[in-house]
Amino acid sequence: MFSVGDKVVYPMHGAGIIEAIEEKEILGARKKYYVMKLPLGEMKVLIPTDNISQVGLRDVIEENEVPLVFVVLQGDQPELSANWNRRYRNHLEKIKSGNIFEVAEVVRNLMLRDREKGLSTGEGKMLDTARRILISELILVQDLEQTEIISNLNDIFDQAPKQL
């Protein structure tokens, strides 16, 4: 069970802070919900408290784990499937997992692929989603502004050698 003020990650949405726990009637059913405020876009999300394990709600990582995220981002791109559909499904599963290290892999793979060959529209949207999720968690863990996190990410990929 989470409490007001907890920093949590909601897979496919990103990280945020639980602002309240409210009881609401939605579609005729009365349930308790976490009201989570996301740091990007000032969006609020309602998360039913009775199925947090199914949706994968988790605490944000510890600050001492941030360097490991950057190790993933700086790692070499693995050999990816040439099949766009298979690659897309693999990346989507990683994003859905809610695991920041897997999301970082997706960001790295798509950023490097974009530099080398460009991305399809679908992969471009996926990169935007993965970056938003990654940035939202790093903002809460590092207590930095969005612009600083984006600058740090850009520095990583500006320094990465182009793979041919």
List keywords for this structure.
single chain; 164 residues; alpha+beta; Thrombin, subunit H; Methane Monooxygenase Hydroxylase, Chain G, domain 1; 2 domains; 5-stranded antiparallel beta sheet; 6 helices; 5 strands; 20% strand
What does the model show?
The protein has 164 residues and is α+β, with helices and mostly antiparallel strands. It has two domains: 7-59, Thrombin, subunit H (Beta Barrel); 63-159, Up-down Bundle (Methane Monooxygenase Hydroxylase, Chain G, domain 1), CATH 1.20.58.1290. Helix content is 49%, strand content 20%. The protein has six helices and five strands, in the order E-E-E-E-H-E-H-H-H-H-H. It has helices at residues 52-55, 66-74, 84-97, 100-116, 121-142, 146-159, and strands spanning 7-10, 14-26, 29-37, 44-48, 58-59. The protein has a five-stranded antiparallel sheet. The model has no long low-confidence stretch (mean pLDDT 90).
- Portion of residues in beta strands equals 15-25%
Helical fraction equals 40-55%
CA distance, first residue to last residue: 48 Å
What is the 3D shape? Answer: globular
What's the gyration radius in Å? Answer: 17 Å
Tally the helices: what do you get?
6
CATH architecture of the largest domain: Up-down Bundle
* Overall tally of structural domains: 2
| Neighbour order of strands in the largest sheet | 4-3-2-1-5
Blueprint (SSEs and pairs):
Blueprint (H helix, E strand, L loop, with lengths): L6 E4 L3 E13 L2 E9 L6 E5 L3 H4 L2 E2 L6 H9 L9 H14 L2 H17 L4 H22 L3 H14 L5
Antiparallel strand pairs: 1-2, 1-5, 2-3, 3-4
Helix pairs in contact: 2-4, 3-4, 3-5, 4-5
